[in-house]
Design goal:
Elements lengths: L2 H12 L6 H11 L4 H10 L5 E7 L2 E6 L5 E2 L5 H14 L7 E3 H4 L11 H9 L7 E3 H10 L3 H11 L1 H10 L11 H4 L2 H9 L3 H10 L2 H17 L4 H8 L4 H9 L3 E2 L1 H13 L5 H11 L6 H6 E10 L4 E9 L4 E8 L4 H20 L1 H12 L2
Helix pairs in contact: 2-19, 3-19, 4-8, 4-9, 4-17, 7-8, 7-17, 11-12
């Protein structure tokens, strides 16, 4: 759900009219690294409830900002699917080594709706050799490491959406909405226009007025129909033309929602290594903890995992880690209704913010003091 990357690129191209020093200053602002920007953004948006931050440190509630407000999750919701994948693999219900045709995954691939994630995953696969199929474990890897939406919907099909949603109950998540096929939902505007023979403006109105039960049902029906009758390349191309920013906003607002309180509870379970059986972690950790593939991270971390998500309006992150001194950290950050500059600056600085919290006691104490005083 990284559609934002393509949108930003398009805006920058159109922004050619913003010439000279103005454009240079814009680029400088969004490229400047400043972890303190995260703190500034929270302070400025806490009252509007467009941001939520939950941090637990060594089992202590460190930061608690709007943690019971629901936010669209974007791709962060893929953590739930990864958990069900690992549970089914551990139980022997699926075979992680089962080969999956890349052509089969294309059924759920809509170009330019995932920030190039699926293409980047395919490109990485083909660096070693030209392949046409991968193990199911690699499909799960691509869902998390590259955030491929096509892989996500394929796993929904293989694992079963009902089974995936049972994870929410088993984890006792209080405010987590049910998962549904959100990539398939991008086709709902096209479906409406074809069904009702209406304009794009009328489609936008119909989308806004549609209740969530119908919206989910339509997305699921589209998902199931694509399994039998995949869209042609031309049909995919035509559907993209309808996804203007107003319609994307409706799509973004209707993504699966949850709270940072929900995700902190998930992160604590993952971080403890005690909640899930070790057989589950055997399959889950290689998918979620790809940060540990970096030798530099292995120098000071025992384990660490994360998943983020974004649209043109949303940025979310769920992160957990345990360092070699035994310190445990869980961070859930959700933001919504972002403008382009906020989206770019938050994306640029979240990693620096995480590192600063993990490594600097002074920053941890300062953050706790500043945000508890609001």
């Amino acid at each position: 759900m990284n559609i934002v990357l393509w949108i930003i690129a398009g805006i920058l191209v159109c922004g050619g009219l913003v010439m000279g020093i103005g454009f240079w200053m814009f680029k400088k602002e969004i490229n400047e690294e400043n972890p303190e920007y995260i703190v500034q953004f929270i302070k400025e948006n806490i009252a509007s409830e467009n941001v939520s931050l939950a941090i637990h440190y060594n089992n202590e509630k460190w930061i608690d900002v709007n943690t019971n407000k629901q936010f669209p999750l974007g791709s962060t919701v893929k953590i739930i699917i990864a958990i069900e994948y690992a549970q089914q693999a551990a139980d022997g219900r699926i075979n992680p080594q089962q080969q999956v045709s890349l052509k089969e995954l294309e059924t759920f691939y809509i170009p330019k709706t995932d920030g190039g994630a699926h293409e980047a995953w395919i490109s990485a696969l083909n660096q070693s050799k030209n392949i046409d199929s991968v193990p199911l474990s690699e499909v799960a890897n691509g869902m998390i490491a590259y955030s491929s939406n096509a892989n996500t919907e394929y796993l929904m099909h293989v694992l079963g959406l009902q089974n995936i949603n049972e994870v929410l109950k088993s984890l006792d998540l209080v405010d987590h909405e049910l998962l549904y096929p959100s990539t398939s939902a991008t086709y709902i505007p096209t479906q409406l226009m074809n069904e009702k023979n209406i304009t794009k403006e009328e489609t936008l109105k119909a989308m806004k007025n549609m209740d969530m039960a119908e919206y989910r049902d339509r997305a699921l029906n589209i998902h199931n129909n694509w399994l039998k009758n995949p869209l042609t390349d031309e049909e995919k191309k035509q559907s993209l033309k309808i996804l203007n920013m107003d319609i994307q906003k409706v799509w973004s607002d209707r993504l699966v929602k949850a709270t940072t309180a929900d995700y902190i509870s998930i992160l604590e379970k993952l971080n403890s290594k005690k909640y899930f059986h070790e057989d589950v972690h055997k399959y889950l950790d290689p998918v979620l903890e790809q940060l540990m593939q970096n030798p530099k991270n292995r120098e000071w971390l025992t384990h660490a995992g994360q998943k983020g998500g974004s649209t043109a309006f949303v940025l979310t992150l769920a992160f957990y880690a345990k360092d070699k001194d035994g310190n445990q950290t869980e961070i859930a950050f959700f933001a919504n209704n972002l403008n382009m500059i906020e989206q770019a600056k938050l994306s640029k600085n979240l990693n620096g913010f995480q590192l600063k919290f993990l490594k600097e006691e002074k920053f941890r104490m300062q953050l706790k003091k500043e945000l508890s005083e609001i």
